[in-house]
Amino acid sequence: MEGIQKLKGYEKIIEPIRLTSNSRFIFQCYPGVPCFKLCCSDLHLPLTPYDIIRIRDFLKLSTDEFMLLYTEPFILPKSGLPIARLKMRDDEERTCPFLGEGGCTIYEVRPLACRYYPLGFGLFRNRDEKRNEEFYYLVKEGFCQGLESGSEMTVEEYRKSQGIPGLEEPIFEWAEIIMKKESLGPIEVPEKSLELFFMVSTNPERFRAFIFETKFLDIFEVDPNLLEEIKKDDLKLLQFGFKWLKTVLFGEKLITKKKDAPSVKRAKPF
Ligand code: SF4
Ligand code: SF4
């Protein structure tokens, strides 16, 4: 193990090659590989809104408890938007709080970023075709023994083997918000707007209370059936939250404001 630990010093190389779903690469990871668990320390591991819901439920915690015990705020470098990331343990290796003797203790609900590794993921706006496109890239870390030894597969085959598509679909609009903010460049963002983004991105319970226990429903038109669904369904609440964020942050008219809405101090659009 000591010999392997030294491998941690190896350089991290992000291959400057844009991969598509059909690009092929070689990779294999399994318990018993000499570097097993080395990739689970010293990470800046972002959590998507859906990661938070799934891990929180798996651990049978409230969102506040999960956020307090396992996360810390993190500012996404390009967009400047605040999200949550996993708080590493306070040990020498800065290991992930969910790393156990036998590997990941939350494997069934491990975050999206863990499932992607050793791939990275990005979105860009194809202006000619007026649509968003995904791209991928390979992150090569010297200690990872799985990069040279496995079988060849496409990016899409790998994504499916990790259960990624089903976890990305519910947060696609969230990724679009981040990408849109990135494309605006380093503009100053009102504090209130950042707070709203962080609330929707990290805490469904607080967002639900924000809808039902403030003047929210005096201001915004929400279909009564949808309202019933978002009372109890966190994923439906997230979908609504992303549309609402696009409405208040970018001025997209996805959620209608009531004609007789009382005047309140609003978040300024970006
Ligand atoms: S959540 Fe699991 S897979 Fe991800 S870094 Fe932690 S231990 Fe590793
Ligand atoms: S092969 Fe790579 S991904 Fe798998 S345990 Fe080793 S370092 Fe981690």
Provide a descriptive summary of the structure in words:
The structure is a single chain. By secondary structure, the protein is an alpha+beta fold. Helix content is 40%, strand content 17%. The chain contains 13 helices and ten strands. Strand 8 and strand 9 form a beta hairpin. Helix 10 packs across helix 13 and helix 12 crosses helix 13. It is globular, with a radius of gyration of 20 Å.
| Number of structurally distinct domains | 2
The whole-angstrom Rg is 20 Å
* Share of helix, binned: 40-55%
Low-confidence stretches: 1-7
Count the DSSP helices. 13
Instruction: Report strand %.
Output: 15-25%
Within the largest sheet, what's the order of strands?
1-9-8
User: Major sheet: size, sense and barrel closure?
Assistant: 3 strands, antiparallel
Average of pLDDT: 89
Structural class by secondary-structure content: alpha+beta
Distance between the termini: 50 Å
The ordered string of helix (H) and strand (E) elements is HEEEHHEEEEHEEHEHHHHHHHH
Number of strands: 10
**Global outline:** globular
What can be said about this structure in brief?
With 270 residues, this protein is α+β, with helices and mostly antiparallel strands. Helices cover 40% and strands 17% of the residues. It folds into two domains: 2-171, no CATH class; 188-250, no CATH class.
Per-chain topology:
Elements: H1 2-7, E1 12-14, E2 24-27, E3 46-47, H2 49-58, H3 63-70, E4 71-75, E5 82-86, E6 99-100, E7 103-104, H4 112-116, E8 119-126, E9 131-141, H5 146-149, E10 151-154, H6 155-161, H7 164-168, H8 172-184, H9 191-202, H10 204-212, H11 216-219, H12 224-232, H13 234-250
Antiparallel strand pairs: 1-9, 2-10, 3-5, 4-5, 6-7, 8-9
Helix pairs in contact: 2-3, 9-13, 10-13, 12-13
